[in-house]
Amino acid sequence: MVSFCCDNCGKCCVSLGSYITVERQLSERDYYCKNGITGELFLVHVQGDASGEIDDDFALSGPGVSGLRKSCVFLRKNPLGSGQICAIYPTRPKICQDFRCYHAVILNPADEIVGRMVGKSDINTSDPKLAIIWKDKIKPCFQPVNHSPGEKREGFSPEDSMWIEKVSSILEPFRYRIEKAS
Ligand code: SF4
Ligand code: SF4
């Protein structure tokens, strides 16, 4: 099993962030926030140089809204390089701590990670051979699980072992293998 590794692309913060609202400002760097999905209330502390920008956004948008931006109000440009960073990373809510944008990785015969299984039945990969196998042989096999009460369970859930085993069996002849991410 490989460890999940976030590369700070910030994509999840665009959709997740719209549920994170700032309820009250306690100081220039401290806010009381709410997770709109679970109702969880949590305190956050802003790190680094983004505190002024966040302060300004909060002054304009007011309490109970997720800010004027489409993405999370705490998602800010990385001052040290490319990409975006979470300005409240150590105090980010549980929903963000638990989030995994991929649930398994695919390794090539040299044991290099060449793909990440994301969403229901998709893959992120820059390996052209793997991309073709996925499109032609794996993607068409995915049938979502049938949740109708009383009916026989059919199909797959993206993270369940039956789906991972199915994908493994298709990839094995091509000498790719899967490891679940923890
Ligand atoms: S969890 Fe995934 S989508 Fe979110 S920032 Fe990290 S790599 Fe990007
Ligand atoms: S709190 Fe941080 S990790 Fe969570 S959505 Fe906002 S920027 Fe992303």
Fold and architecture overview:
With 182 residues, this protein is an alpha+beta fold. It has two domains: 11-98, no CATH class; 104-180, no CATH class. The chain is built from five helices and nine strands. The chain has helices at 11-16, 51-61, 94-98, 128-138, 161-171; strands at residues 20-25, 30-35, 41-45, 75-77, 84-86, 104-107, 113-118, 122-125, 177-180. A four-stranded antiparallel sheet has the order 8-7-6-9, with helices on one face. The longest helix is centred in the N-terminal third of the chain and has 11 residues, at 51-61. It is elongated and about 60 Å long. The termini are close together. The model has no long low-confidence stretch (mean pLDDT 86). The chain binds iron/sulfur cluster (2 copies). One iron/sulfur cluster (SF4) is lined by residues 13, 16-17, 20, 72, 74-75, 86, 88, 92, 96. One iron/sulfur cluster binds at residues 6-12, 99, 101.
